[in-house]
Amino acid sequence: MSLKALELGKANLEEFSATMIELAEKDSKILAVTSDSRGSGKLVSYAEKLPEQIVEVGIAEQNLVGVAAGLASTGKSVFAVSPACFLATRSLEQIKNDVAYSNYPVSLIGISAGVSYGALGTTHHSLHDIAALRAMHNMQIVIPADNFETREVITYAAQSEKPIFIKFGKKNMPHLPRVNKKFEIGKASVICEGSDVAFIACGETVAPAYEAARLLEEKGISAEVVSMHTISPLDEAAILKLASKCKAIITVEEHSVHGGLGEACAAVLLQNQAIVPFKIVGIPDEDTVPGSQGEIFDYYGISGEGLTKTALNLLK
Amino acid sequence: MKRFSDIELMLKSVHYRKALLKYIKIAKAGHTGGSLSSTDILNVLYNDVLNVSPENFGDPNRDRYVQSKGHSVESLYVVLADKGFYPESDLETLCRFKSKYVGHPTRKVNGIEFNTGGLGHGLPISAGIALAGKKDKAPYKVFTLLGDGELAEGSNWEGAMMAAHYKLDNLTAILDHNSLQITGRNRDVCSPYPIDKKFEAFGWKVVIVDGNNIPELRKVLNATPAEEGKPTLVIANTVKGKGVSYMEDVKKWHHGVPSDEEYKQAIAELDSQEAELKKQLETVNS
Ligand SMILES: Cc1ncc(C[n+]2csc(CCOP(=O)(O)OP(=O)(O)O)c2C)c(N)n1
Ligand SMILES: [Mg+2]
Asked: Which residue of A81, A259, B118, B247 has the fewest C-beta atoms within 10 A of its own C-beta?
């Protein structure tokens, strides 16, 4: 067997906060803006080390994003940090007008994204944010898969001249292998190469896709896995290349099956007459089953076994 | 509604506190501090004020309670169980896979009016219910429970302005004024003060009460509207983590889950409060 088992790293959330401290210590222009969210954002030690570089606005996410936009307009490098479920919902109009339309480079950091707060109910899930933000011009959307991508995208965001939305969860993530250990915004990252089926995944679903590739390898099926960390702008060339290289494509995301990575890929494929067996795996249009992130993933087939089954069915 | 004595209600509060700690302990999750601070308020509402029961829950004239600070769902869940909406043992599944008892109020659970958990929703929702009551000349009253940290959400102030404009005196907002939010003291995080003067300026009648004092709460919550033609804000001064000495007024218990040792101590403290109240009850009865 050539695909190796993965080693566990830390939570992307932890990597985010470590990166923030390193960057902000070197650059006083960097500001974190929080809405009673420094604890959930693991920014307590950041706040202790750099009290002048954190702005607290209280439990007020609309204010959070408006204030962040104002700060950014003066040339500061601003990270607005709040649970994804509130950030891309409560403050949606501020994101649309003050950040995206006005085009100020706020870094919107959605913590505990997707179903990280699975057992807290739908108020605390964020399964619509790609759909909403993908429809906004100027908005970059990046969902890092592991600690490496998290560090890279946070470092990028600190310098970016355009708005960016970044989201991640709070569970420890495995370190993923990479064919080419380089991170580039808007360029898919190949985790492992294959020719039978391709998994296009993002964020915390890349690891289960890789697990599926391992299980499929045991069955003599070769699977390619890419981390499509950047949803906007989307790497269309990579998607089309996979369509010509593999017999089937499966997209995987911790998001509603409506309006997310899967539908974005489908639009690219169809409009380029690239017709391959294709399946979108995500959270279906129903009352999301409550539970831990892992339980919810298993239930909806976002697991090594579930994705293996999906692949076998699609290749039949 | 059965009329309880003050001591009987105080005993209920102790029972609720023990129960909610038990289910938080089993679930290994929960919003402990704010559930304990609001226990007495929910107790008085459901056992002395609201005309709400499993029997009349479909009645359009029932009183309404909307929990805006949805995270303190554990106190609400145990009170609704005690009211007979479902067996208390259901709560053993709190926050488990596929359980309807998720970590914020949901209408899947019998007795709950609105799905809350995102802060800053309860006041506008309650204003809407109260406005419908005025339009329909319905007799019901509407109550909502707000957190003090929650007041930073602008929607509260939008709702407050509108509720006064429409003279919604069938609406009472209760503020669980425990002076803490996740990061620390409200006044250090982003000060909401002066709360009373702000609401008064918005056209509300403001009443201040000890929110962990059953007889006082009974008096105030049964006397709404505090002024005809105006919505009422009851500022209930509470202690976050009330009833468990080491949790009281300590921010980490916002969503802290006690260890086995801590849990034992908490239950022991509540047991002794219970024994003391039972003694008082016996003296009164004899
Ligand atoms: C819109 C929204 N933003 C943030 C949160 C996360 N959150 C849950 S509880 C809480 C603190 C609430 O403090 P307070 O209102 O004082 O409640 P209490 O002290 O009574 O628990 C926060 C920030 C949320 N649930 N909803
Ligand atoms: Mg509070």
From this structure: A259
In this predicted structure, which of A133-137, A178-182, B124-128 has the lowest mean pLDDT? A178-182
CA separation for the pair A309, A311 (Å, rounded): 5
Per-domain residue ranges of chain B: 6-285
In a domain, residue A2? The reply is no
pLDDT at B286: 83
Site to probe by mutation for ligand 1, drawn from B35, B42, B71 as the one with most ligand atoms within 8 Å of Cβ, is B71
SS3 of chain B: the string is CCCCCHHHHHHHHHHHHHHHHHHHHHHCCCCHHHHHHHHHHHHHHHHHHCCCCCCCCCCCCCCEEEECCCCCHHHHHHHHHHCCCCCHHHHHHCCCCCCCCCCCCCCCCCCCCCCCCCCCCHHHHHHHHHHHHHHCCCCCCEEEEEECHHHHCHHHHHHHHHHHHCCCCCEEEEEEECCECCCCEHHHHHCCCCHHHHHHHCCCEEEEEECCCHHHHHHHHCCCCCCCCCCEEEEEECCCCCCCHHHCCCHHHHCCCCCHHHHHHHHHHHHHHHHHHHHHHHHHHC
| A88 inside domain | yes
Question: How many domains are contained in chain A?
Answer: 2
CATH classification number, B6-285, choose in 3.40.50.150, 3.40.50.970, 3.30.1330.60, 3.40.50.300: 3.40.50.970
A123 CB neighbours in chain B (<8 A) are: 70, 104, 115-118
Asked if residue A106 belongs to a domain, the reply is yes
Please determine, for residue B2, whether its predicted confidence score (pLDDT) is greater than 90.
Answer: no
* Alpha carbon of A256 to ligand 1 centroid (Å): 26
- Per-residue pLDDT of B63-72, as tens digits, reads 999 999 999 9
Q: What is the mean pLDDT of residues B268-272?
A: 98
Domain that holds residue A256: 176-315
Residues of chain B in contact with residue A35, where contact means CB-CB under 8 angstroms, are 152
pLDDT surpasses 70 at B13 = yes
Taking one residue from A and the other from B, the number of pairs with CB-CB distance under 8 angstroms is: 86
pLDDT at B183: 97
Task: Report the separation in Å between the CA atom of B179 and the middle of ligand 2, taken as the mean of its atom positions.
Answer: 5
- In tens, the pLDDT along B172-220 reads 999 999 999 999 999 999 999 999 999 999 999 999 999 999 999 999 9
Q: How far is B231 from chain A (nearest CA, A)?
A: 24
Query: Could you give the ipTM of this predicted complex?
Result: 0.95
- Is A300 found in the same domain as A197? yes
Segment A61-66 shows an average pLDDT of 98
